Automatic annotation (TrEMBL):
This is A to I editase domain-containing protein. One of its GO terms (biological process) is RNA processing. Pfam families: A_deamin. GO terms for cellular component: cytoplasm; nucleolus.
């Protein structure tokens, strides 16, 4: 999808996505947007250990030639922000031993099924996609095949 399509989706559903919607009290929305970076590189910083990671957005892997704060990692290292790593963290915080009120997930559940379990988010997403179709804006191009993994 185009950047503007994704920004539209974020403005309606929030930035948090399906999984985090089940552990957050309310959606997280953008207050401003800067559009125009054309390279598939992103930078993220971790306040806990003060590390910076440069990631190739097309592969989800750390860019070893651009790693900023530690020795160059193996090029097969996935970013701490890739779906699989974030799903592992999500499963950790939703386990019952943390005493949280959130829905407990079967530790063998796959990513796609976990996303579908966020019923309210999925209803809002379905409504958004229906509105796109009804207004003649076309269908949202889905890629569920990339969500078929276990962490």
């Amino acid at each position: 999808m185009s950047c503007s399509d994704k920004i539209c989706k974020w403005n309606v559903l929030g930035l948090q996505g399906a999984l985090l919607s089940s552990v957050m009290d309310s959606p997280l929305f953008l207050s401003s947007v800067v559009v125009g970076k054309s390279k598939p590189v992103s930078v993220n910083w971790n306040i806990i250990d003060d590390t910076t990671e440069v990631t190739n957005g097309r592969t989800g892997k750390v860019s070893p030639d651009l790693y900023l704060t530690s020795p160059s990692p193996d090029s097969c290292i996935y970013s701490r922000l890739c779906k699989k790593e974030l799903f592992c963290l999500y499963k950790t915080i939703t386990q019952p031993h943390n005493g949280l009120r959130y829905q407990r997930l079967d530790r063998h559940i796959d990513y796609h099924t976990a996303k579908l379990s966020a019923k309210q988010y999925q209803r809002r997403k379905t409504d958004l996609y229906s509105t796109f179709r009804e207004k003649g804006y076309g269908m949202w191009a889905g890629r569920e095949d990339v969500d078929q993994f276990r962490a």
